[in-house]
Design goal:
heterodimer, A: mainly alpha, 13 helices, 0% strand, B: alpha/beta, Rossmann fold, Alpha-Beta Plaits, 2 domains, 6-stranded mixed β-sheet, 4-stranded antiparallel β-sheet, 11 helices, 36% helix
Chain lengths: 262, 341
């Protein structure tokens, strides 16, 4: 399997170099965190909002922007197209589950992306020297794991929506709705602890938080150890569930695909 | 026996919708489906090393059958076995030993040189380095790929791309090849070289091959045996030349006359198909061919004579016409749905 991934990653990276300009543009237009930062930054001008100072907002949203960049997923566009045009057939002839093919294309992007982000991170540091994170080795390690989990949940949920193209023709719309929820309840509009307590209590357990805000919360220093442990458990739950649902949908979808004409 | 199909049926459920907005709304509330029988009770077996031509008009069920055989489609009913596997289970060992080449679909990465896709396939099929190099060298030589391997696929001509597609599909040295229109859109020279390559591959690896093509030249050059289907049903399975004999009980005698006739009536020698100047083509009953030719030679001023089978295209066309007539007599409706990709 390792050899297969190396080969697929090589191909993915080579293909991305063919489109480096458009890749950079796609990254740059992803400005939602910066827009929200501007909003909260001005709201906190007169003093902290619910304990968030201006510098807290800067720290939160810049890292959120990083998490968003590192978890970007577009697999539904590929999958939807290939299912609809029957191109999935070609992948099904190979002795390898197509999931690995799509996963590695996305991973190739995740390997290249940090190189483009490092200069931006340095620039951010120079402009906002007050950004601060709670960095202990344990938290940094947890951050990395949570980042990977966020990417995985995002990828698998979008992949599952993509697989719905086996049955329905508007799977993309469902995915758009899912994405809107991620923005609202995942910590993009506002950090989750600024939400009314009842809403936050629910949002804290929904998958959207673990697709975006959770890694940032880990190093923002606002979570207690109990919060962290509970969050990690919920994160693990969503990772496993995403995989289980994928298996279920895939088995049925492939039967559907091959029953109605590949 | 490498391939066996018994009573294979593949029905597609097709959702019927009336045209226009009202039709769309109606179909939302009340969806009507009807079955289209793409393959309808088809049986045949194929032995190791055979090259079989799979013929039929558009929508006959050829591509559907090939997709069932390569595990892409579940049969509606019937038993299918390829190399001892049930294709629809899509076992890794099965997939490693077959290939399906669809002339109108491609697996090569469009933006990168073909070599990049070859390397990925080598990894996916877990080919040992030595075997991969050896196969690649062989394919490069047979197909003349050397100048193409490092060019971006999108810069290749259609024929060059097809050669690279074939190579990508054969790197793992499959024992069974399903070739669906492998020469479609290629010019005559390129068709000939692809054809030559398929024959070579069959000889070298004793591979079993099923081939569909709209070009009869592909079939006559490669296949001793043909399977003819129409509307998902078997029309003929057997020797290509025997088909010609069965369908067309005539032979074609072409005569070049040395000078004009002295009162002999050409009509007396057989059914005249064509005359152009001093050249005449007769259709004579198969059994009477030699007698007729002898008479012509002795009684007519013959400069040259040839006896031929009628063109295979004409034979096949007649097979389909007869099948259509038989269906019409049974009162079956003509369905024009096109199941090819």
């Amino acid at each position: 399997m390792f050899r297969k991934y190396i080969a697929l990653l090589r191909l993915g990276i080579a293909a991305m170099f063919e489109y480096r300009a458009s890749m950079l543009i796609w990254m740059l237009i992803n400005v939602m965190p910066l827009v929200m930062l501007a909003v909260w930054f001005s709201m906190a001008e007169g003093g902290p909002v619910a304990g968030y100072t201006q510098s807290d907002f800067v720290s939160y949203y810049l890292l959120l922007a990083f998490v968003q960049q590192m978890t970007t997923v577009w697999v539904i566009y590929e999958l939807d197209y290939e299912i609809r045009h029957g191109d999935l057939s070609i992948k099904l002839l190979h002795p390898l589950n197509p999931l690995h093919d799509y996963l590695s294309t996305n991973l190739a992007d995740k390997i290249l992306r940090p190189f483009a982000l490092i200069p931006l991170a340095v620039a951010a540091w120079l402009i906002f020297p007050t950004i601060h994170y709670h960095l202990t080795p344990l938290r940094v390690a947890l951050f990395v794991v949570a980042l990977a989990a966020a990417w995985f949940i995002r990828f698998m949920s979008q992949y599952i929506f993509g697989l719905l193209a086996f049955w329905v023709s508007d799977s993309m719309t469902l995915n758009d709705i899912w994405f809107a929820f991620t923005e609202m309840l995942g910590g993009m509009i506002a950090p989750l602890d600024l939400f009314p307590p009842q809403v936050a209590a629910v949002a804290n357990w929904l998958p959207f938080r673990f697709m975006l805000a959770f890694p940032v919360e880990i190093v923002s220093g606002r979570l207690t150890s109990q919060d962290l442990a509970a969050g990690a458990a919920a994160m693990l739950f969503w990772v496993v569930l995403a995989f289980v649902v994928y298996r279920w949908v895939w088995r049925r979808g492939i039967r559907q695909f091959s029953a109605f004409g590949a | 026996m490498i391939i066996s199909i018994q009573h294979l049926c593949k029905y597609y459920q097709v959702h019927q919708k009336e045209a226009g907005l009202v039709g769309s709304l109606k179909s939302l509330v009340n969806r009507k489906y009807h079955d289209v029988k793409a393959v309808d009770d088809l049986s045949f077996t194929i032995d190791a090393g055979e090259i079989v031509g799979f013929l039929g008009p558009n929508g006959a069920g050829k591509t559907t059958t090939l997709k069932v055989l390569s595990g892409l489609l579940y049969p509606t009913s019937g038993k299918v076995s390829v190399l001892g596997f049930t294709p629809s289970e899509r076992r890794v060992e099965f997939l490693k030993n077959i290939t399906l080449v669809m002339g109108q679909k491609q697996q090569l990465n469009w933006d990168l040189p073909a070599m990049e896709t070859f390397l990925v396939n080598a990894a996916i099929y877990e080919l040992p380095e030595k075997q991969f190099r050896q196969t690649l060298d062989e394919l490069t030589e047979l197909l003349g790929l050397a100048p193409l391997l490092k060019k971006r696929v999108r810069k290749l001509s259609l024929g060059e791309r097809m050669k690279c597609e074939l190579a990508a599909a054969l790197l793992h040295r499959p024992k069974v090849l399903f070739l669906d229109e492998p020469t479609i859109g290629l010019d005559v020279t390129m068709q000939t070289s692809v054809r030559q390559f398929i024959a070579d591959y069959n000889r070298r690896h004793r591979a079993t091959i099923i081939l569909t093509s709209h070009y009869m030249a592909d079939v006559t050059a490669l296949c001793k045996r043909v399977i003819v289907i129409d509307h998902g049903k078997l029309l003929y399975d057997g020797d290509l030349h025997a088909l010609a004999e069965r369908i067309s009980p005539h032979k074609l005698i072409r005569v070049q006359l040395a000078h004009s006739l002295n009162g002999q009536r050409l009509e007396d020698y057989g059914e005249i198909v064509k005359t152009r100047g001093q050249r005449v083509e007769f259709l004579v009953p198969r059994d009477a061919t030699s007698q007729a030719a002898a008479r012509m030679l002795s009684e007519l001023p013959v400069a040259d004579v040839t006896i031929e089978e009628p063109a295979i295209e004409d034979v096949i066309t007649r097979v389909f016409e007869e099948a259509a007539r038989a269906r019409a007599e049974r009162g079956e409706a003509e369905e024009n749905e096109d199941w090819e990709e």
